[in-house]
Amino acid sequence: MTAEPAPASGVIIAHDNLWWYGGAERIAASIAAAFPDAPFWTILGRREVARRMGVEARLHTLLPERRPVLASYRAMAPLYPTLLRARRLPEADVLLTSSFAFAHHFRTRNDAPQLCYCYSPLRGAWSMTGEYGAALGRGRIGGTAMSGLAALLRRSDRRAAQRVTEYVAESRYVADQIRRFYGRDSQVIYPPVDTELFRPGQPESGEYFLFSGRLIEPYKRPTLAVDAFSGSKRRLVVAGDGPALPGLRKRAAANVEFAGALSDRELVPLVQGCAALVFPSVDDFGLVAVEAMACGRPVIAFAGGGALETVVPGRTGELFGEQTPESLRAVVDRFDPGAYDPGAIRAHALRWRRERFTEEIVAAVQAVRLKDPSPQV
To answer: Cβ distance 332 to 278 under 8 Å?
Structure first.
């Protein structure tokens, strides 16, 4: 870890961790680009992820980048609130947290006002306790263990939420969760989409459907997509890597292919040529779905979460009503990619262009800078 800098902009950015390069890290990279002088803190992280985000030169981690630490980052999650209480960040005018789990627990030495860009309240504690319990083990053992852990985490999580000066939610779906779980109001600032990189291309083959994202259960639900196509005659390409990959390979039929982990530039041609992006999860926003629409491609999404705010049935894609392989397969089997206008889909996606996000997040930070800090709890 490098020496602590004096933030020239008066802003310090703090993010949960940089273990994967996913949707939250894409958004955090845009936040960092809007404040190029701001130090960038995380609980732990990998330099290669920071390099991809453009923040390597200003990255500071609470825990060292060592293989045993990185390998245990999930198991150590219950310890993070205690760690963040014990370790204060340098003084700042504004602390800008980028949080999907614990980042809103960060505090500076001078208790600077905090603007929290929230991707989701801690899912394992609030909205997906049952699903994460099932992932821990079969039967009642995993569920009981997760239920007890979730109860402990909820108390510390809600306490930290009361210290936040202002919340920003990445969607109306998340704003509703912040209100229900934390009792806090929030402003919605939709995430940025790189509409210059993700743009229509030629030719559009439409010969395959695409799943793109981290291969992790239960959140992203790649197994649902693989099982849906294993019972279909249509072709699925899976782009991404993660702990679920070995199991997915074993259960996949011959019409399911795996492209592995791809950079954004490697992913774009695959998106441009697909019949549709398949999006089976309940995402807080669903950045990859809007990136597909920026390429002029329709999206087949589960009717839940942020997809209800981005996918317009009959115009930019379709929704399926149950999170089951059968429900998804029914839409896929009758789907006609030629029924959608790529230009109209692209125009819809331009609502989330990066320039709009930068303007709104900078304005939100400036507003918090002028506020008194919320009472410290």
So the answer is: yes
Residues 14-35: pLDDT tens digits? 999 998 888 999 999 999 999 9
Over the stretch 318-363, which tens digit does the pLDDT of each residue have?
999 999 999 999 999 999 999 999 999 999 999 999 999 999 999 9
Report d(CA 169, CA 171) in Å as an integer. Answer: 5
Quick one: 186 exposed, middle or buried, by C-beta within 10 A (0-12, 13-18, 19+)?
buried
User: So what's the pLDDT on residue 206?
Assistant: 78
Token pair for 361: 């997040």
pTM over 0.85: yes
Label the pairing between strands 317-320 and 256-260: unpaired
- In this structure, are residues 78 and 153 in contact, taking their beta carbons and an 8 Å threshold? yes
Contacts of 103 (CB under 8 A, 6+ apart): 14, 15, 16, 43, 97, 116
Residue 319 DSSP code:
E
Question: What is the DSSP code (8-state) at residue 57?
Answer: G
| Residues 6 or more apart whose Cβ sits within 8 Å of residue 192 | 26, 27, 30, 352, 353, 354, 356, 357, 358
The enclosing H or E element of 157 equals helix 139-163
Three-state SS sequence of 68-102: HHHHCCCCCHHHHHHHHHHCCECCCCEEEEEECCC
Backbone angles phi, psi at 199, to 5 degrees: -145, 160
Q: What angle do CA 75, 104, 19 make, to 5 degrees?
A: 40
CA distance 236 to 270: 12
DSSP string over 100-145: SSSGGG--BTT---EEEEES-S-TTTTT-HHHHHHHH-SHHHHHHH
Task: Report which of 239, 271, 233 is spatially closest to residue 254, judged by C-alpha positions.
Answer: 233
Residue 371: count other Cβ atoms within 10 Å of its Cβ.
12
**Cα–Cα distances in angstroms (integers) from residue 148 to residues 81, 108, 133, in the given order:** 16, 30, 10
- Reported residue count of the chain is 377
Per-residue pLDDT, 6: 44
- Token duo for residue 22: 């996913």
